[in-house]
Design a protein that fits this description.
About 30% of the residues lie in helices and about 20% in strands. It is an alpha+beta fold. It has a five-stranded antiparallel sheet with strand order 1-2-3-5-4. A hairpin with a 3-residue loop joins strand 1 and strand 2. Helix 2 (about 60-80) crosses helix 3 (about 130-140). The longest helix has 22 residues, at about 60-80.
Length: about 140
């Protein structure tokens, strides 16, 4: 029996990774990071394949194309709605063997010594509450 997958669980609405859904079709899901994950910072999205596929190399051509479209729309949405200094994207896949791509904003004014991948460590960075996150994800969804 395969080990449980926290991203597959997330797609069933179970577990700590469940966050607000921004977009879903028959191949990919785009969500915002839940507020209880690290700092409640606006603009941290995940793109995941609905099918359990461990890595980028395991995606079908259709899944890869859907991921690419979703990443482009996510970056466009974050740039338009948050006016960040940058929008970054990364596929790392070391902790969970289910394809997922991070797309996240680096807020304008982030100190230069703050690493690109560690915006949460900036104590004065923007934060969001539940209502703010609902409002943001509603606006982001319009780009899909």
């Amino acid at each position: 029996m395969p080990a449980p997958c926290p991203i597959c669980d997330k797609h069933q609405g179970i577990g700590p990774l469940v966050g607000p859904v921004i977009f879903a079709d028959d191949l990919v899901l785009v969500t915002h990071r839940p507020l209880d994950q690290a700092a409640p910072r606006p603009g941290y999205l995940f793109i995941e394949t609905l099918r359990h596929a461990p890595t980028l190399a395991d995606l079908t051509d259709d899944e890869a194309a859907a991921v690419g479209r979703a990443a482009h729309r996510a970056a466009t949405a974050l740039r338009a709605e948050l006016a960040p200094e940058s929008v970054f994207s990364a596929i790392v896949g070391r902790s969970v063997p289910h394809f997922h791509q991070h797309v996240f904003a680096r807020p304008t004014g982030t100190p230069p010594e703050t690493h690109w991948f560690d915006i949460d460590s900036w104590p004065d960075g923007p934060r969001v509450d539940e209502q703010g996150l609902t409002d943001l994800t509603t606006r982001l969804a319009q780009y899909f």
